[in-house]
Amino acid sequence: MRVVIAEDDALLREGLAALLRAEAIEVVAVTDSAASLEDLVGAHDASLAVVDVRMPPTWTDEGLRAAIEIRRHRPDFPVVVLSAHVEPAAAGQLLADGAGSVGYLLKERVAAVGDFIHAVHRVAGGETILDPEVVSTLMQRRRSPLAALTGRERDVLELVAQGARNGEIAAKLNVSEAAVSKHIRGIFDKLGLHSEDAGHRRVLAVLSYLRER
């Protein structure tokens, strides 16, 4: 894996690079400018980018916009976006193409090194990973179309949005994998998701409430 890091805080930027290198992940470039991110990804043939949402000059959404632009030119390019706070709108924009290979994590989560590295690998493998606090905030806000879901289906959807696989969901909820599969089919049906691609439907299930801000 070849990673580019875009982060304006020098200490965090170097810390992220050190964490990744300690796990034998190659960091091919670092930058404090969102404007240079796409050029660095191309110049170094990167396979994943770790990007801060808020970067100079306005510290609003420069990093987010840079990540979205990369994916516009390089569909499915894996991106892990870091944010200091829960920003549902940013998560929604990042996931809008429904393509996967996206991570949205709070910066405080980087301190849990194992979880952060695990998320990076899963995003590189095509999965969508949302920070649990982001998911919790979104679940509390949403009433429709989630109103049709049972309490257990909402529990399952929350874990799906966090990137949990069926076996992990089963273990956390103390149910069988068959039961999890049944709940997920129910979620898809109630949300009107009829694609044949189950992985794609998992992303669309998350988008169904991200879009209702």
TrEMBL record:
Alphabetically ordered keywords of this record: DNA-binding, Phosphoprotein, Transcription, Transcription regulation
InterPro entries linked: CheY-like_superfamily (IPR011006), NreC/VraR/RcsB-like_REC (IPR058245), Sig_transdc_resp-reg_C-effctor (IPR016032), Sig_transdc_resp-reg_receiver (IPR001789), Tscrpt_reg_LuxR_C (IPR000792), WalR-like (IPR039420)
GO terms for MF: DNA binding
The keyword Lyase is annotated on this UniProt entry: no
Domain called HTH luxR-type: residue spans: 142-213
Alphabetical GO biological process terms: phosphorelay signal transduction system; regulation of DNA-templated transcription
Domain annotation Response regulatory: ranges: 2-122
Keyword Phosphoprotein: yes
Modified residues (4-aspartylphosphate): D52
Positions in coiled-coil regions: none
Pfam family, one: Response_reg
Entry protein name: Response regulator transcription factor
